[in-house]
Amino acid sequence: MKKAKHESLCLRKGCWYIDFYLPKEFGGKRIRCSLNTTDLERAKYIRDVNINPILSNLASIDVLNKISEQIYKLKNESMSSIEHINKRLQSSDRILSVSECVEKYLKHLKSSSIRPLTFKNYGCGLKPFIKVVGGNTRIDMITKESAIKVREYLIKKGLGGNRIKFIFMVVRGLLEWCSMEGLVSPLVKENLKIPLPQYRAEHTSMIPRGKADAAMKCKDSWTLSPRFARYTGMRRAEILRITANDVIELHGIKCIQIDERSKTHERRIVPIAEKLMPYLKDLSELMKNRKMCDGYNIKLKDIEGCEKCSFHSWRVYANTCMMEAGVDQAVRMKILGHRASKSEVHIGYTSVQISQMKKAVDLIP
Question: 365, 212 in Cβ contact below 8 A?
Fold first, then answer.
């Protein structure tokens, strides 16, 4: 390769190349590429117009690159994370224990807009975690072995797969909050990524028709709630919140108005079956006897044929009885508060009258 008098140009096999080294502060790499011309003047022109301006602005390009990197970083990592890092640097070097972090986390949750019942569930979800790893253990000492111990403990206790997943979700939320507050490294929460048990969900069993009366009265001191569940298909939590103010009359039909505290967070109307009319005067007993529901599922399982049943089985009972009586699916879904799936979009365009719903609940034996 023959070098030309003009700096950075060289001739190779009749074709002009540009050949130079980057400055050391930019890596000192050798740059060599063909200019696709055999004419020297053309090569000089390409170099002076296209190459030299870039070389002269290498420093400014480098600065712009660094600025763009910082902007990208700030865009993907909120400013709050930087504030938390500063807070961590200014704080003492003492690492908090698991109990101390849980206490701070629960205090943070309580001051947020979290629902009281959800807050209670989060607190319960953290208890087995504290018990297994130890309340006095430093929060940064949570390892993969700790997570495995928690998992094995929960399985041994006989908890279902969904409950175990929920507990790990709560603990992950705790560690994520701690990392944002600068109390622990963000890498600690990665130790919770372990395989969790997968259980195939079983369909809720239906209370046999011939055992419906026995199932409704299996707990002598608590028969009103199962009675309402039998003839309305309502959920237990919905029934236990019924008051006299929730009974309204619509088009001459008495109905129960369910508020947005239901599972689907949507209001709905459930007509009152004729078999429930004599018990409307006892509605105040529903809330008074809320705590008496404990033990109902155990007594229910003592009935022959109801070994796999629970209070929720009354919804299956109501739905099945209405279906067997020829009640349209759209009407049943409206009563039970079920949402239409993508394959049932047409149901959302079906108009359901209160009178249809009333006839449906009256068909439940």
Answer: yes
